[in-house]
Amino acid sequence: MEYSNQLEAKSAELVHTTRQLRAANEKLTQISHQKDAFLSQISHELRTPMTSIRAFSEILRDGGTLELKAQEKYAGIIHDEAIRLTRLLDDLLDLSVLENGQVSLNMRGGTIASVLDQAMAAAGAENNPMRIRRSGAREDVRLFSDLDRLAQVFINLISNAQKYCDAKSPVLTISVREVEGQLVVDFTDNGSGIPKASQEVIFEKFSRVGSDQAAGGAGLGLAICREIMLRLGGQIAYLPGQGGASFRVTLPDALEMAAQ
Ligand code: ADP
Q: Distance from the CA of 114 to the center of ligand 1, in angstroms?
């Protein structure tokens, strides 16, 4: 009797182990497919600028009779595409470092206002037609975080609003508030926003909405923002129903509330 119980227990264990093995195998297959898809997306993203660099450099090489103006134009395209490639490779490298958790954070103290000032300057807000309104009830709150990484998230959100907001008189409102006991920074523009069906995927690598591919991004910016906020112990999310596009950055608990 005891022997048969033991046998039954062993057989149940075996069934369980087999199930676990099968699940692990399926997971591995899924990872391998994701890797293939990622590689094919990267190849596609690299191929576009490479094709134009190749084509225009061939024209320059072979076109002995080209006017100086045309030569300058083609050299300019090659230069812009090379910059696009470099940016793409930088973003890919940054994302990979963040995803693998190899990133070292440079923690220091400062106010949200100073991080926002830094981000607006880096995004060229002064020379951009988009008006930025800051309603900073809580901008004086001090943070202890990697402020350069946080600024990187803010720069991305400001640049995206500058690039994608389709309003005639574009306005971005940045507000720092406390919501349910947490400090949040909302970036809301007055464009037509992001369609409901795309709101879930915009934080995935290489995701772009509609015809925005023309704007030149590779769809890595928000994926990088999400990884940074994860590393900083905070969050980033799309806020639906705000009129235009609206993103909420929730800051980690490690705040220095000294400025209160
Ligand atoms: P990209 O590098 O292409 O800008 P992101 O990951 O930063 O990629 O953004 C993903 C996509 O989300 C963009 O291509 C764009 O379609 C959409 N998007 C982001 N911000 C906005 C915004 N403020 N208004 C409208 N669409 C936006």
A: 25
